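Collaboration report, partner site 2.

Our partner group contributed sequences for two proteins of shared interest, and the home lab folded both. The records are reproduced in the order in which they were received, starting with the first partner submission.
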Amino acid sequence: MRILSLRLWRRCTMRSWISPGRAVWGVAAVLLAILMFEVQAIGDSVIAAQVAGAAKVGDFGNADKLLKEYKSQHGVDAAYVEAFSWIGRGQLAVKNYKAALDNAAEVHDLCVKQLVRRKLDKEESLPLALGASIEVTGQSLAAEGRRDEAVTYLQSELEKWKATSIAARIEKNIHLLSLEGKPAPALDVAQWVTGPKPRPLAAHAGHPVLLFFWAHWCSDCKQEVGVVQQIQAAFKAKGLEVIAPTQKYGYVAAGVDAPPAVETPYIAKIFSIYYAGLGNVETPLSEANFIRYGVSTTPTLVLVNGAGIVTLYHPGLMTFGELSAALRR
């Protein structure tokens, strides 16, 4: 929302052809539009947050009540569909796979109906809802022992939505079910943030490698770096090497738009402040690596053994105990 507000403000204030009087009214109109949009966005996010909170603790009765109240006032809009998708996520968490699959199918249908009138990435709620429905379906099928069916389903959905923002999320779920035990995808090492020139992943053969995917804006990544440092210290003698891939996102602090020539040194600065404890690690800078590994969550941790085979694919935070146990295995 802050990014949208900044862009609207710039669009208004940078139009020098407007007369001073008209400029004042133009600024006022834009500020009013921003306020109205933000009020609407706050309202949309509230229902999703409320239903998510109830679903996360298994209070599906209250979640249903909240959804019915919202629907009676607003109908079935994008915010409703996003909130509704949390029911499936909650049911998956408590291992009620049939209910999770039923919800995911209904959410998917509601999203498709909404997309008759708009594009998927026109706003945030529909991509979140549709991505969740696909993720819940894949994970529920796999949990029921239907892993091959889950992977086939996810691959078909990826083909449908490959040109949208949810492609990486779908790819992540495919990797969750199929990447472990397979050869690690090659890394694009043409550009890097800091440290030594990265080598191709094959050049690390004979050493276990921990890939630590991070983003300059990611607070969880800054939290996880302490765990990665502990892992380095504990397993360095056994040949462990750490590689820290990242990518450009098109903005810097406070969501301000930035071209590559500005964002790249900013990423290097963030690394020097928060990640210097990793030492002189390789830091490939490439969107291709995030696509190949299906990274839509940061941090994502990937373990590759000395033979180049993925032994762990984990989106999100891990504790030292969890990661060290994976390495010992």
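Second partner submission, folded after the first:
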Amino acid sequence: MIPVSRRLDFSEIPVVDISALVEGRSAIDATIAALDRACRDVGFLYIRNHGVAQATIDRLVAETKLFFALPEPEKLAIALDQRMRGYIPLNYRSWEGEARAGTSHQEGLWVGHERPLNDAVWFDAPNRWPASLPGLKPAMMDYFAEVERVGVALMRGFGAALGLGREHFVKLFEHSTSRLKPNHYPPQHNPENVNDIGVVPHSDSGGFTVLWQDDNGGLEVQSKSGEWVGAPPIPGTFVVNIGNVMQIWTNGRYSSTPHRVINRNGRDRYSIPLFFNPGAAAPVTPLVGAAAPDPNPLLYGTYQKDEWRRIFPIARIPA
């Protein structure tokens, strides 16, 4: 049986007040230093005073619960497509673990920026929405826009902390391939196998993730010693974690930390991650500490498409 993780002291995953970044204040050295330490030492942090209205969060949570309560055929009518937009069903199989497939006791709805179908830019397409819930689209897109402003503030903080300039990452995220994905986790009692939990151990593939989680808990983070520790919800905060591409960009200075979800609380769990992914033309190569720029780097569009094809075979993404 999978052992229950110890409760994480809040000091172990830092809580950073980002109001100075969000408000664009000039005297933000302490905030940038705290952000830098959290990304280097943990790869996870809580952010508070982020500026996202509670009403925006509450509206999306309410619409999310209505969506996941729909009959399964209605949800499957907008099933995940090859552009990574749409519904991913409960108990889907994925390869998020590096060496094995796992069953995720989770269902989700993937959306990106609303864009016309564009064969030249594979990530561009309209989203897929259920006809019976007209309030879901505005709730999701309003939340997307508000949290994206938080992400831009964080990008400026990352750029300043790394000596790249405040706008460096903002430019890399132009015409972003970011995805918003509300999730539902039914209760899971006494899971027996790590390949059969809410979400199997993984690290996120993009730049970074901003997560809202409800008060059930369930998110667990793997420490550098290999210990799994719980990252409990803190009212008024989001959880931020570094993704694989940011780890590459920073040449390992920032950590893309493995994490998983086990919903042990006996109630339905909901979470809303916004995966901040750069534009398809962004280079996937070290930006700091490299001897010389890579003259022919892998581009993010190729990297992310290959990752999504590997992780989510259910999407049937073409080669």
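Feedback sent to the partner group on the second submission included the following. The helical segments are 19-22, 29-41, 54-68, 72-76, 136-161, 168-172, 244-249, 300-311. The mean pLDDT is 90.
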